Amino acid sequence: MSTPFEIESFDEYLNTIHSELGQNGEGKRRLYFRGQSKRATEGYPLTPSVARYPYLEKLPLAERECKEAEVLETFSNHLLTYVQHRPQTAWEELAIAQHHGLPTRFMDWTTNPLVALYFAVRNTSGRSADSAVYALISNPKRYADLKRGQAAQVKPVGDAATESASEPEDDAYADFSTDDSTPVAATTDTTTPTDSADLSADVGPLELPTPFKISENIIYDPPHVSPRIRAQDGVLLACWQPMRPLDEKDYLEIVIKQAAHEDIRRRLDKYGVFDKQLFPDLDGIAKWLKYRAYEINGTI
């Protein structure tokens, strides 16, 4: 994959986002960002957390989808004990499951490029490798627009094919859920699910497929089940082929050179894009105090 941008300072990153990617607030199309402390080329491809389990690639597509659905159903049966409002759709249920660490076909992204930069550099002390921010440029449909009938309708996929799996990336957004930094190698899948059911009729705007039956990637704005999601401007990418990495044509890689990480961390902290703001709870306070008092021996 070609690398169009290599960033060596905080200011250079801001200029790239505003000038090169058009994030200037003047009606440009929406972009989504994801920061990773390890690059996709290091064995951390852009895949959702469910792709971390290679045995799933050996299952027929229908069997794997059934397993995902059964796991979600079991999770959902316990929700009423812990939440005040029961989710109305499988999308809401899966978003809550993702937040609490259940492997899903959702990938965490953000609409805030500084939040993505935080995840790219926050936990890289002592490492000699570069990190990266990924900008999603494929312009996927948004769930909210589909529900309102403001986007072309989506047909559900059938059950008559098997997909190959790829291994996971370093999930820098693990604090939406859980952390797993074991490196893995991606594989390539050349098969595409085919429809076995009668799909002649489009699904209407109020009858969207479940996340397990979509035929293209969809951006989903999750319910604010946690202050973290709101603070991090989090969105979820529902992956219709969750065992495969995103196609390289769907994103741009912005490499953050390792030599710039320490200064970028300090600048992000100065401008309020750091631990205690992005994790508005005791964990965030602890992370922030650890950074200020011990990592940089600064003032509190």
From TrEMBL:
Pfam families: FRG (PF08867). Residues 148-202 are annotated as: Disordered. It comes from the Bacteria. Residues 179-202 have a biased composition (Low complexity). Residues 27-134 form the FRG domain. This is FRG domain-containing protein.
